[in-house]
Design brief:
homodimer; mainly alpha; 2 domains
């Protein structure tokens, strides 16, 4: 095969994959937001088909030969071409090891899982979820066997969401968190507890939605190239940079839960909307990893959305939607949304204990795929870990092991991305503050554009050009490190608790 | 190739096509209901890709060889297998004649067209729609050249929506309508004009939606296997029998426009929900033709929905949603929704003049593809035909040539399906009345199940097993004939106008 033929073959498959992913993305979004209940089975079959098709395309012999032909070119390729070949071959070599019928079965099951989980959680019935969970774990264990990771079995899963990530690296990053965070919880407990009494009341869904729309637009999510809908578990689906869909959920007894979910998903959405279209033909119009993705969502949810400056900006807008909060000063709002206290639900957790929720899931998943734990052991193991890490025991499984959607969709190995995202967000924030020292003044004025522009320049615009450590090195000059996150969290606790 | 190998090859492609169609159906639905405006371009590209993929699959040499191998078996095949081969070869031989790059270009353009039309209609700006319309007509003319129809060029288009349909057959069926309908309009004018004054007022969208949900469910549309949404032009998308999506649109100054659109689409939807899943593997879990499809929608919209019996049933339900109509007797409602009078908008037209709207579009399309008319001539030609057939001149293009979505999506040759649908609905109704003489009493009691069951037995359950004339022959014992429709319409006019 000639080099230009090989390139043409690869570009053609990349284009096909882009359309497949757009279709599969829409089907996935629809499944969680619009699909009538009777349609789940058929949709799962179609999603399984498209999952299998992607594998078939990526392992098709002419395509693989073309990639290998190009790999041999080494530095003779343009940088984007080389990166394209590297990224695709990573996927190809992974997928070649997995039997197609098992891969398809996994996709069908993962597509069905969400609706089974949704009902099980609503009914607080772990038993109803157990059969599908067991089968998913079984399939994923099988895949690990096919993949034969050199180190810990769980490495094979971590690697899917951040290439090259291992148990060894995660342990090294999480150990300082696991040690320091309980000290921060204790520090908070020694301070002045913020008043939350004014958050009681009824806050109509329509007003919450208006607030979510307004503030997500303000921070830079473009609603002409996106939507905001409702789902059982908030998520973002980037179908194309011009079609990015975020969701939230509304609790009428809580004014801000939906807003923080929206800001989180809008952070993901802003990343997706600002991916470089010029890299589409190389298949690199994509995030660098899920942990980098979470750095963007957690940045907008917390570093921006839970800052005092943000509440100075947002207070009058909040008052428009919730007249009951019209008299509340920004600092009281800021303190109220930053209360540090162990709680049951990860997505509702404060920034400090949030990371302990992740450590919990990480340690359970690690044990699960080391064969030290079975699906049926999860509720008890969950509750024991909650007691160990947060000093709480969930009153039921809906507020325990059933709270997250991820496992129902076969997403094992994903959770560490959230804590890594926090860690990366703090590193990026320190770098950003060097370039934009008036960061907080700008937030207070509602001038979010330069913040978005900085993130686009240093993160979004690179697409999948670099692996996360290299991307971070370029953006911050540093290696992944939990210190900035711990500094940021301690400052936050001191400000909120007046220490 | 052995026979069983050939069958396996065909079954596999049929399954792939089913998943492709499900994905394309969802994308099409989403485009008209959910897609953010910025996403149109990318979506059109993806839809073009999937259109091209279907053509590629259907013309793939091994698949075509398998079909031809099976065709040679003739009666040695099971009846479903034979029908499958016939139906697929019809498509294959059509698609083989069209160059793939042109077919793809058509699909991209047809996908973009709807949003361009939507804006042009909103702005009453035919000029904004003209370039895309011209290009679509150009492409369709090209396709006709490739297809080389034996008779009138327009035959090539009619045949897409009802196999074997020709200008000759449509002319023969429409001529009696073109002659008799103006006489029925005059007959109505000689009677007692129904009072419509109570239809004035403001009817909140939410109440209209509640009514649409309730009454579509009542007639047999299953909302657990379907949805009701809003779009600029109402439509139905059958993604799977378990996932059928209908849309309507709401005008707050009109209580029943949305309801009739909903009943119409629910008729389509009931057809789609009751297709035979056992025929899916043969690719025959599909409607017999678009005209048979329209027979179902027009049946529920008009034969059921505009009957006196229906308004006796619906009046109390209507009163719940629209308190202002609480005192109005069923007969007054019945007469008000059946006023026969020439008007501008097809989908709002009464049952008599409706067919003249179709004759208009049919004659324009026929001229267009005979080369007697160009895209830029359409507004003037439209207005002249309106004057000729209905004695009216539209005040603007939004209420004239721009009113329908079809051309913007490249649907040329579709319109006759509506009048044929009316004609077939009347034939089916006469047959149904023989089996269910208490048809109207059942409607009045809200007992719609036996009506739905009759239609399922005689129409839905056959899927695409028979071409329309054979299906009708089996259901009614007759050849396509306009007489039942004219009888039905004259009875309606006499009842409404007290003649």
């Amino acid at each position: 095969m000639r080099r230009d033929e090989a390139l043409l073959t690869v570009f053609e498959t990349v284009e096909r994959l882009r359309h497949y992913h757009a279709a599969a993305g829409l089907m996935g979004w629809d499944m969680q937001t619009m699909l009538p209940p009777g349609g789940v089975e058929a949709r799962a079959e179609t999603m399984g088909f498209f999952g299998a098709e992607s594998q078939r395309l990526l392992t098709e012999p002419t395509f693989v030969a073309a990639l290998e032909r190009l790999e041999a070119e080494g530095d003779a390729l343009a940088p984007e071409e080389r990166r394209m070949v590297t990224v695709l071959l990573r996927d190809v070599r992974r997928l070649q090891k997995i039997p197609p019928e098992r891969y398809r079965a996994f996709h069908v099951l993962a597509a069905k899982g969400e609706s089974i989980w949704r009902e099980a959680r609503a009914e607080n019935d772990f038993g109803a979820f157990l059969p599908v969970l067991r089968e998913l774990i079984q399939l994923v264990r099988e895949f690990i066997d096919y993949l034969e990771p050199a180190g810990h079995p769980y490495d094979a899963l971590l690697d899917q969401y951040e290439p090259g990530l291992t148990v060894e690296r995660v342990d090294a990053l999480f150990r300082p968190l696991r040690e320091a965070l309980p000290r921060l919880v204790a520090l908070a407990a020694s301070g002045e507890t913020p008043d939350r009494s004014f958050l009681k009341g009824r806050f109509p869904k329509e007003a919450q939605r208006a607030l979510s729309l307004r503030l997500s637009e303000a921070i830079g999510f473009d609603h002409r190239r996106g939507r905001l809908d409702e789902s059982a578990h908030p998520f973002t689906m980037g179908i194309e940079p011009t079609d990015v869909r975020i969701t939230t959920r509304y609790f009428e007894d809580d004014p801000f839960s939906s807003l923080f979910s929206t800001l989180h998903e809008a952070g993901h959405g802003i990343y997706e909307q600002n991916l470089p279209t010029s890299l589409a033909r190389y298949g690199l119009m994509a995030a660098a990893s899920m942990s980098i993705h979470e750095s963007q969502s957690r940045f907008y949810e917390n570093v921006v959305g839970r800052s005092l400056a943000f509440w100075r900006y947002a207070a009058p807008i909040v008052a428009e939607q919730f007249p009951a909060l019209a008299g509340v000063e920004p600092e009281r709002l800021f303190r109220a949304v930053n209360v540090v206290t162990p709680s049951f639900i990860r997505v509702e957790a404060d920034e400090v204990t949030y990371n302990l929720h992740i450590v919990l899931r990480y340690e359970l998943e690690k044990a699960l795929f080391a064969g030290e734990l079975e699906a049926e052991d999860l509720p008890a193991a969950w509750n024991a870990k909650m007691e160990e890490l947060l000093g709480l025991t969930p009153p039921d499984d809906a507020r325990g092991v059933l709270q997250d959607v991820h496992w129902s969709s076969g997403l094992f190995g994903y959770f560490p991305s959230y804590a890594l995202g926090n860690l990366y967000a703090a590193m990026l924030t320190e770098a950003l503050l060097r370039d934009l020292p008036d960061f907080h003044e700008r937030i207070e004025r509602g001038d979010f554009a330069p913040i978005r522009a900085w993130m686009t320049e240093h993160v979004h615009a690179h697409g999948n050009r670099y692996d996360p450590p290299e991307l971070l090195k370029r953006a911050t000059g540093r290696e992944p490190d939990p210190a900035p996150l711990l500094r940021y969290l301690e400052d936050k606790v001191r400000a909120v608790y007046r220490l």
